[in-house]
Amino acid sequence: MDNTPIRMKKPTIVQVYQLLENAWGAVKTKTIAILSMVQMMAFYMRIQTPLTQMALMIPRRRTRLKITATVNLMSVMISQ
Description:
Elements: H1 13-27, H2 31-44, H3 50-57, H4 63-79
Helix pairs in contact: 1-2, 2-4, 3-4
């Protein structure tokens, strides 16, 4: 293993999918948890798109909207 700080590396697809799996585990219980997961991924992958900004402003109560926005956001992240 090299000693490059994690922050400097772009995550592997495997790491991204692990984050996704953790996030989907959270979606059944607390939707806020999946949102913070998305924000963490956005920060981790250094992605600044209108979608990541949107994730910060998704209304707290509208669960279906939150999940849809989250799924869209994740698919954008994976495709980049």
